[in-house]
Amino acid sequence: QVSTQSTGVLIFCAQKKNTDLRSFPFLRMVVCALILILCVSHITSLSLRVPSCVHQKNCLDHDFELTERAEPSSPINLTFAVKHKNVDKLYELVNDVSNPKSPNYGKHWTFEKIGELTSDLQAQNALLTHLRKFVPEKQLTWSPHSGYVRVETDVKTAELIIGGKYHKFQSKTKRHLVVMRTLEFSLPKEVEDVLDHISPTTQFPSVEEKNSVIMSHPGPTTRAVEGSITPDVIKSYYNIKSNKVKHLNATQSVVGMLGQNFSPTDLKNFQLMNGLSPDAVDEIVGNNTETVCATNGAYCTEANLNVQYIMSTAQQSTTTFWSISPNQTFIDWILQVSMDPTPPLVHSVSYVGYEMFVDSLEQQRFSQEVAKLAARGVTVVVASGDDGVANMMAKQNTMYCGVYGAYPNNIPYVLSVGGTMGPEYGLKETACQYDKGSVITSGGGFSIYFDRPTYQSTVVNQYLANPNATSTPWFPKSNNFNSFGRAYPDVAFAANRYFMLNNGVGKLLSGTSAAAPVVAGILTLVNSARLVKGKPPVGFVNPALYQLAQTNPEIFRDVVEGDNHCTSSSICCPYGFVCAPGWDPVTGLGSMDVGLLIKAMIRL
User: Fold this and answer.
1) What is the value of pTM for the model shown?
2) What digits encode the pLDDT tens for the residues 226-272?
3) Cα separation, 238 vs 234, whole angstroms
């Protein structure tokens, strides 16, 4: 059996369990950053045990408590992510086909070809040999190109497979959230050595992570009111010449977590209310139950917002609602998408978590899966969060103030989207900021895990060398953040006072959760225009956008006013980044003139 010595470092880092540091938030951040750096160089195995905070019931990122043993006959799906080979070559490939200056720009690879590059068949066979001792072949789902194996079985058999016992855990604050996890497990060394991730086992979904990035304004409304975002406002403000998708292959998707469901009825009525032709969601992956919207609208708010605005931004596109269960996390979703030989070309993610609370191996694997998709021409768009530089927990108490990176925004291969306000009133854009009248604050900062990618190196260095930004009294001290880390967001769009329908009732909502599906829809329009011209989809679009910011600055609407020292509550922290000319860790490169963007992207 495998020693857990190296894993203990990872668990401490991911869960930040040393509660004695709570009274010293910046010291705590620095300590965790140092530990995380150690994690990168020392982790060689999976997290085989839950952190002690689960037993002590004081985990900072979730509030799940053990309730009872799982029923032996209960169904359970296990996902095993087999380690990749040629990861460095994969990243080189992505950077090559995504760089407009490269002769290989847009020459994306197929699912099969990527699989041949990265799939370790010898490692996969070692896993399959172990699994076939417990389940028949018909309960195994795998392919030589996917890099993961899925097992459909029951709890009793799953416990034999992983060498652990499953229990039920329930969230104290969100009672509908019940997950199955094991307190510890033990695999043969030859099996554990070939794996990056197993779910569900010892990693808990963060209660905060699983919250949508969205905040409500008080009071219902029967129609869009003055000072609200509608599809027409977005079209006019951002110079979208046409919202019609003209190529069948310009496809898109939104992910649903936390048991979120969308209402086809609300979607249809929203479209009619805004003068749009009714257009239903084309495919649902996972579960979607419209009836829950009538019993508890909170289970549908996020999904309704996402679906209504991605489909009104990119109209008549083939759209997928990709739902994962509350028992699953980001890694489960990205593995599902990556295994699809023909996934939608653009994906919108409106959920966010803490970088430090997520298993380092899981983050590495997420990055690899996004890179595999990018090499195939797929784009992943992620909301940057609504709680400024400190992230979500700080909105509860100033003791959690600090400079905390958000996951999966920290992944270099996603497009991170911050939030602005002003378009709802036809005014110039400023950063969404709670203390300036919004109910959110645009998330942004630097990763302590992933290095800064070359595509953003120049503009980030310019920002850090700008004394007008760095000399402000609330700019974080240099030892409070990793200035060499992946910086985010990349761009920003309207995120304040969106009008939407939920269970037939009009609501005004704010969040980068709204900005992300709009940007995803815009990229679907870009894909449509390129595909009509016989060109490939944009795929990993970040290098192109950062280059266009230098060669075609007229495309971008620089946001130079605002900061992110506040949260989505009345709590504001001592430190935060500030907006400045060019890129900044509040609104990125700014927003874009979509008409000019499409023209420029067609020329690439």
Assistant:
1) 0.89
2) 899 999 999 999 999 999 999 999 999 999 987 899 999 999 999 99
3) 6
What is the rounded distance in angstroms from the CA atom of residue 543 to the CA atom of residue 604?
Answer: 12
Question: Containing H/E element for 252?
Answer: strand 252-256
All residues at 6 or more sequence positions from 88 whose CB lies less than 8 Å from its CB, including other chains: none
List pLDDT tens digits, range 6-26.
222 222 233 333 333 333 444
Q: Which two tokens stand for residue 96?
A: 């090559």
Of residues 585, 381, 362, 352, the one with CA closest to residue 489: 585
Q: What's the half-sphere exposure (Cβ side, CA atoms, 13 Å) at 403? A: 28
Matching residue, tokens 């001592």? 574
Instruction: Check: CB of residue 459 under 8 Å from CB of residue 583.
Output: yes
Sign, CA torsion 440/345/320/334: negative
Edge to edge, the sheet with strand 195-199 lists 140-142, 148-154, 75-82, 195-199
Decide if 489 contacts 591 (C-beta within 8 A).
Answer: no
Decide if 584 contacts 416 (C-beta within 8 A). Answer: no
- CB of 448 within 8 A of CB of 355? yes
- Going by the DSSP 8-state scheme, the letter that residue 316 receives in this structure is T
What's 3's DSSP letter?
-
